Amino acid sequence: MNPKEHPIQAYLAQLSEELRGLVPERERVHLVQEQLFWLERRLRDAVLEGTPYEEACRKVVARHDSPKVLARRLAHESYEDAIDTPIYKLLGRANSTAAVIFGQANLYYLLFLQMKVYLPPSAALKSSLSPAQLREVFPEPLPFPDLSWWFLMTVGFPVVMPWVLGWLCGRMIPVGASSAVARVMALIVLSAFVLGSALLPQVEGILYALFLLVYWLPVGILTACLSSSLRRKALRHKTEAMDCRPSASHASIQEFPS
Amino acid sequence: MRKREGFLLNAGPTMMILAILRENARYGVDIARELERITTSELSFQPGTLYPMLHHLQKQGLVTSVWEDPEGGRARRMYHLTEKGRAEAERMIGAWGKYTRAVDRVLQETQKDEP
User: Fold this and answer.
1) Average pLDDT over every residue of B60-70
2) Which residue in A118, A124, B5, B79 is deepest, having the highest Cβ count within 10 Å?
3) What's the CA gap between B44 and B77, in Å, rounded?
């Protein structure tokens, strides 16, 4: 059988490609070799059972997980193991990262809302522009814009932040970012119903929690998914460029005895 | 069912891995092959399922693994059960035995009552 057309060889090449950039190079070689070892044992079993060699090769590969699925799971393990701390061990590195990013932003916003609701109106910070200066930018009949820092923070922060935070999570978690964000946001939304109602007037509290549910949750997941996918591509390209150097070959996994 | 035994419903695959490793240290593929041999291929593990489970068990301190990197270029991890893992396996298997015996009794009793 031509090595290039060998199903196991093709499978391993695809798996290696999927893992590129997601795990350190030495680990990538080891993980691919481990799958080669797995497939060879399966192949030997199938041949001993009397299946013709070529058919056995195809069957063994067909029964194995797809390279994409397997690469994601192996890369996720590698990501989780890369840093060993008690908190990462308990909650998982991806979950902890998403929790810190989204949790902090929510905590700050909740504190800010409390100040906005309970501080006397005279204490509000105003922008340095006078009403006349504002009218130069927003002429009548446009509504008079309230460009105070309070207004910008109250409206701008919750609208912009899930995009920024989701993006940040995707950059920091190359595999499984969207599911980590989903898990963390589900907890934050649940706690927001309790904390929002306890720390804010009831209507504002419930509106805050509903806003997290219908806007932050889907936008955060979507952005994290997009961002991590782009991150994976970037990592792959970066490693491909490094592979051009003669030292980075994987000769050992190219040799499959047929 | 007592609350502390509710874990049994989701514990099957974990328990099978611990039980297989209780006999000997094994490679991932050999855990899958052993499971298939014992269950005559009724149950099987794919690597995408098995390795994350082993990883989870490692995080819990029930299993350890060592990379072996022989000359021929077939690196693989050998999985061992820790003392904690052995104790957990015994506990789970004991609870599982009680649970399945109770379920069996219910099934047998209700079968008798059928016309």
Assistant:
1) 90
2) B79
3) 19
3-state class (DSSP) for residue B86: helix
Distance from CA of B37 to the nearest CA of A (A): 11
Residues of B in contact with A37 (CB under 8 A): 27, 29, 74-76
C-alpha to C-alpha distances, A238 to A187, A243, A250, B115, nearest whole angstrom: 35, 9, 17, 71
Give whole-number Cα distances, A82 to A76, A97, A207, B47, in Å: 10, 13, 39, 20
Decide if A232 touches B, using CB distance below 8 A.
no
Which of A120-124, A248-252, B66-70 holds the top average pLDDT?
B66-70
- Residue B8, pLDDT score: 58
* Predicted model pTM: 0.74
Q: What is the DSSP letter of A4?
A: G
What span, in angstroms and rounded, lies between the C-alpha atoms of A78 and B52?
10
A126 in contact with chain B, both atoms CB, cutoff 8 A? no
What local confidence, expressed as pLDDT, does residue A250 receive? 45
Contacts of A184 (CB under 8 A, 6+ apart): A95, A98, A99, A102, A103
